[in-house]
Design goal:
alpha+beta; four-stranded antiparallel sheet; Serine Threonine Protein Phosphatase 5, Tetratricopeptide repeat; Yip1 domain-containing protein; 27 strands; Neuraminidase
């Protein structure tokens, strides 16, 4: 009996341990289920990378009280957290709370297909009723205060219908309305005199390709009439912030899909957004000068006011019905606590996301920075970077905060970490300016001293010949064949026609001297590529592909030399492969001589002065091209026409050679894969 009791205790303990383990596992599954999506951001190079979860899927609202939604199209959240939903399928506006409590039903029996809703600070409810062809204004009790129909102004357009879909209202009561199929822009109506049409606002522009322009220029009137009309896109949705700025999203406008418009209709997001969704459905603003855009598929983008991406998260529901995924988003709103509300018309529900600790810290930093509290903004930014040191937007914000504090060394450091070229240039300009103030006198004294020393030595040499022995040694050194040929490349650079004659007729062609110049060229190319100034660097920090770079240069030089030799031989050219190799390598001398000056300038100049480097590089590359052309012409004794022909055939030959090498590579890879598969099968069969 005692044994049975002990056995019962052991079994009980094991069952209890199993239940605890199972419950722990279920809890972990529950946490994972809250975030069925990943969060991404961009680094300073524009690469998409995963980061900490920015927003957690908190809950889903499917009804208010006992009232379910049918094909909801829009919603608005007031500062006190009240939710207004345009319940399109039922022809009404549902008013409720974040916990699903029903407060009121507005417009029942008066509205046909409410597509947009907006609530002003004085609690007036504006509803865009598409099939009702009107904008209704209600009070909180559902009483109709005003009704605005199609403007009777001839400026509106006689043939245009009035089908309002979305609406926002500024503090003066001016309405901005998106109407279906109205490509003229957002309809702007003042409440004065029962509704005064003020004009069109934020009109999108139609893009016209060069091909279309040419077609329209050469076609007849009848043919042009049959072409598809190139009309601007109608905005899909809009929002307004506390400053009265209008935000619009438009499908098909690519980087201009998101716009931030001032009162004059000018887009304040210069250059547009680099990270955009192809089907944006809704837009709203946050509490920290940030912007949220939701795509119809359920992806949510958060930008700062300059249009720089902070996060993208969410996604399309694949049928698993997991919280946080959507199928057809029509509206997005943010409450005073930074919770995001996403309206899904297909699921007839509202997804609610709450910001994670990581996002709360970033928002706090953004708020402090926007208010001018730069020093205070650094603390939350440091906490963000402790969580994710690779979050480049935080590095950028930290650099800008240090810059405002005039700590330019730290600003430079963080700007480089974030690949913030503008911030780096500004900080570097200040550092350079301070250095010049502190050292300009000493620098001038050193320059004058060096100039005076040069003059004194030159004078003494002229009178007493103090440099006679060094000059004699240098002269003897230059007489060596290798050194003489290297020095001859300088003559070729300055006098390419005469220099080409020396290569062709006077035995100046060699293998060693051109190879030396090619070696110096490769060394300078690698140094300039990886060690140039930050503002001119085109490769990622810490990434070096030196052997690959050298291999590419060697292959290109060998291919150009061989192909040009074959073409010149066929076309009765007089150049041998040694001569052709010589003038190709000698043509690189302008790069060898002058690229070090460009390299130095990359460490001295700021962004506004970079055009000097670009100009110098254009001169260098142009000089190299001229030397190559004249080398081909003079060494092979061609006319200008024959030279052009040979150059074109050489380029074509190089392309054919590259194609053959690629085909051989692909075929060999397939053969190698087949042999590996056969070998694996044999090993498996005979184990």
């Amino acid at each position: 009996m005692k044994k049975n009791k002990n056995l019962f205790k052991i079994v009980s303990v094991l069952l209890l341990a199993f239940v605890i383990t199972l419950s722990t596992g279920l809890n972990s599954v529950s946490v994972s289920a809250n975030t069925p999506y990943r969060t991404f951001t961009n680094d300073g190079y524009g690469r998409t990378m995963e980061t900490q979860t920015a927003y957690l899927a908190q809950k889903t609202l499917i009804k208010f009280g006992n009232e379910f939604m049918s094909n909801p199209s829009d919603m608005y959240i007031t500062s006190d957290g009240t939710i207004y939903v345009a319940d399109t399928g039922h022809g009404r506006i549902l008013v409720g709370t974040a916990d699903g409590k029903l407060l009121n039903i507005i417009g029942k029996g008066k509205l046909k297909t409410p597509m947009g809703v907006f609530v002003t600070s004085d609690k007036k409810i504006y509803v865009a009723d598409k099939d009702g062809k009107a904008v209704f204004v209600f009070d909180q009790n559902g009483k109709v205060l005003n009704k605005y129909t199609k403007p009777d102004s001839p400026l509106y357009g006689e043939g245009l219908d009035f089908l309002p879909q979305k609406i926002v209202v500024n503090d003066a009561g001016v309405m901005y309305i998106v109407c279906q199929s109205n490509t003229n822009g957002i309809v702007e109506i003042s409440p004065e005199e029962g509704g005064t049409f003020l004009g069109y606002f934020g009109t999108n522009y139609a893009s016209v390709s060069l091909q279309t322009i040419i077609y329209r220029a050469i076609l007849t009137d009848e043919q042009r009439a049959k072409m598809v009309s190139n009309m601007p896109s109608t905005p899909d949705n809009l929002s307004i912030d506390t400053k009265g700025l209008i935000y619009t999203v438009t499908r098909g406008d690519e980087n201009m899909s998101l716009k931030r418009l001032n009162i004059a209709g000018t887009n304040l997001i210069k250059g547009g957004v680099s990270d955009y969704d192809e089907s944006p459905a809704a837009v709203t603003t946050g509490n920290h000068d940030n912007i949220y855009v939701a795509s119809s598929q359920g992806y949510i983008y958060e930008y700062n006011k300059q249009g720089e991406l902070l996060y993208v998260f969410g996604g399309t529901d694949d049928g698993t019905q997991r919280v946080g995924l959507s199928t057809q988003v029509t509206s997005i709103q943010v409450d005073s606590k930074d919770n995001i509300y996403v309206l899904d018309s297909d699921k007839k529900q509202i997804q609610v996301y709450e910001p994670s600790e990581f996002t709360q810290l970033l928002h706090k930093a953004l708020y402090l920075y926007s208010k001018g509290h730069y020093t205070e903004s650094k603390k939350p930014l440091q906490q963000v970077l402790q969580m994710n040191s690779m979050f480049d937007y935080a590095n950028k914000a930290m650099g800008r905060a240090y810059f405002q504090e005039e700590n330019y060394d730290m600003a430079l450091k963080y700007a480089r970490l974030a690949k913030d070229y503008e911030g780096y240039s500004d900080a570097f300009w200040e550092i350079r300016n301070e250095w010049l103030k502190d050292n300009i006198v000493a620098a001038l004294v050193i320059i004058v001293a060096l100039w005076a020393a040069f003059k004194i030595v030159k004078s003494l040499d002229k009178k007493k010949g103090i440099l006679a022995k060094p000059k004699a040694a240098i002269a003897n050194f230059k007489q060596k064949t290798f050194v003489a040929n290297v020095c001859y490349s300088k003559y070729f650079m300055k006098h390419p026609i005469d220099g080409s004659y020396g290569i062709a007729r006077e035995g100046r062609a060699s293998w060693s001297a051109p190879s030396f110049i090619l070696l110096v060229f490769m060394i300078e190319y690698v140094i300039n590529k990886y060690l140039c100034g930050f503002l001119q660097k085109t490769v990622r920090e810490g990434r070096y592909e030196i052997f690959s770079d050298i291999g590419k240069i060697v292959i290109v030089m060998a291919a150009i030399t061989l192909c040009n030799y074959l073409v010149c031989t066929i076309n009765e050219g007089e150049g041998t492969i040694k001569k052709i190799y010589t003038y190709f390598c000698y043509s690189l001398l302008p790069y060898v001589v002058y690229i070090p000056f460009s390299f130095i300038l990359t460490h001295i100049l700021t962004t506004n002065e970079q055009f000097l480097i670009t100009l110098l590089q254009y001169v260098i590359y142009g000089w190299v091209i001229v030397l190559v052309i004249l080398g081909i012409k003079e060494v092979n004794n061609y006319t200008a026409k024959e030279t052009a022909k040979v150059i074109c055939i050489t380029i074509f030959t190089i392309l054919i050679m590259a194609l053959l090498i690629f085909i051989i590579y692909v075929l060999w890879a397939q053969v190698f894969e087949f042999i590996s598969a056969v070998f694996g099968e044999v090993v498996y069969r005979f184990g």
